[in-house]
């Protein structure tokens, strides 16, 4: 294969990895698929001159190990504790009934809204950390030509809402065994790799 052809194949693999990463990121943001979690309580610690709230939240979250691998590697796969975040100010318009003039009006979220915002903020923080690592893993799978692992990873994603961390690993291992069997007994390349080759070539 020429140098130009190798570059084109590499670019295709990078684009394919970005596509897989996109779907993994979507699943990461979905409750039950990406994480199980709840906010136990929130406390407003202060407010700045612009109306932004400084909030302390107590959260209990378990992340999908196949979507948040970095969280598990750094010991935050199951997080229960305090988390500080800033709730950005939201302003609306207040209309004076007597003059009809418009005035800016600060909207203060309820406690339940802050609890939901806290869970979203904590999850997004972990997601930003995991995205670069996930991209490297997905790209390496393509470069090393073990594309059947894509199916195994999605099995882990689907298994998480069914059985938590145990369900995720069981689904992953089950599909891994099927992939190995297919490679050894049915087709050396495997079904996923055949589809992959038709796309890349």
Q: What about the largest sheet?
A: 3 strands, antiparallel
Principal-axis shape: elongated
Strand order of the largest sheet: 1-2-3
Distance between the termini: 11 Å
- Strands, count: 5
Mean pLDDT score: 85
Please give the count of helices.
5
Q: Percentage of helical residues?
A: 55-70%
Rounded radius of gyration (Å): 23 Å
Low-confidence stretches: none
Question: Strand fraction band?
Answer: 15-25%
User: How many distinct domains?
Assistant: 1
Structural class: alpha+beta
Q: What is the N-to-C succession of helices and strands?
A: HEEHEEEHHH
Layout of SSEs?
Layout: H1 3-28, E1 35-47, E2 53-63, H2 69-73, E3 78-87, E4 90-95, E5 102-107, H3 111-143, H4 148-186, H5 191-200
Antiparallel strand pairs: 1-2, 2-3, 4-5
Helix pairs in contact: 1-3
Considering the chains and any ligands shown, give keywords for the structure:
5 helices; alpha+beta; 23% strand; 5 strands; three-stranded antiparallel β-sheet
Could you characterize what this model shows?
- This protein has 201 residues and is of the alpha+beta class.
- The protein has one domain (3-144).
- It has 5 helices and 5 strands; from the N terminus they run H-E-E-H-E-E-E-H-H-H.
- The protein has helices at 3-28, 69-73, 111-143, 148-186, 191-200; strands spanning 35-47, 53-63, 78-87, 90-95, 102-107.
- The strands form 2 sheets. A 3-stranded antiparallel beta sheet has the order 1-2-3.
- The longest helix has 39 residues, at 148-186.
- The protein is elongated and about 80 Å long.
- The mean pLDDT is 85.
């Amino acid at each position: 294969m020429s140098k130009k052809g190798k570059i084109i194949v590499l670019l295709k693999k990078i684009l394919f990895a970005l596509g897989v990463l996109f779907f993994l990121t979507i699943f990461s943001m979905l409750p039950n698929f990406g994480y199980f979690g709840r906010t136990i309580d929130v406390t407003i610690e202060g407010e700045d001159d612009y109306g932004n709230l400084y909030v302390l939240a107590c959260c209990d979250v378990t992340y999908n190990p196949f979507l948040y691998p970095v969280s598990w590697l750094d010991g935050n796969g199951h997080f229960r504790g305090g988390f500080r975040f800033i709730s950005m100010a939201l302003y609306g318009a207040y209309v004076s009934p007597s003059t009809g003039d418009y005035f800016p009006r600060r909207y203060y979220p309820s406690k339940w809204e802050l609890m939901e915002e806290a869970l979203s903020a904590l999850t997004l923080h972990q997601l930003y950390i995991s995205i670069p690592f996930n991209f490297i893993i997905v790209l390496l799978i393509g470069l090393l030509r073990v594309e059947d692992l894509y199916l195994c990873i999605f099995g882990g994603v689907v298994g998480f809402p069914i059985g938590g961390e145990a369900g995720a690993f069981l689904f992953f291992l089950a599909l891994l065994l099927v992939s190995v069997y297919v490679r050894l007994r049915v087709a050396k390349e495997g079904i996923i790799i055949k589809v992959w080759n038709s796309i890349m070539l």
